[in-house]
Write a structure and sequence with these properties.
The protein is mainly α and 106 residues long. 58% of the residues lie in helices and 0% in strands. It is globular.
Amino acid sequence: EMRLFRIVAEETWWLREAAPSPKAPEGAAALPPRLRELCVLLLMGETIRAAAAAMGVSEHTARGYAKSLYGRAGVGSRAELVHRHASGELSPLLGNTGAMPGESGA
């Protein structure tokens, strides 16, 4: 599943060159810790169910977090969330660097 996610992400490079989506509002506050944790898990390719298990919450709660996350990020899907992250538009929401675990912030 992770391999497929990475292949799709690599093969859709052209999405990053498409017309930019609306960005998060200027001065957008960083995500609360639980939403940031879910965001990182989703960007790593985890399903909502797997993210819920990793976070120690119910799947229903994780779905509620995802709905809130998508609203704050101004996206309607996980694919759009990944696109926004790839284009650097989530940096204000993810904190200083917007980097994923294991990535450098530079």
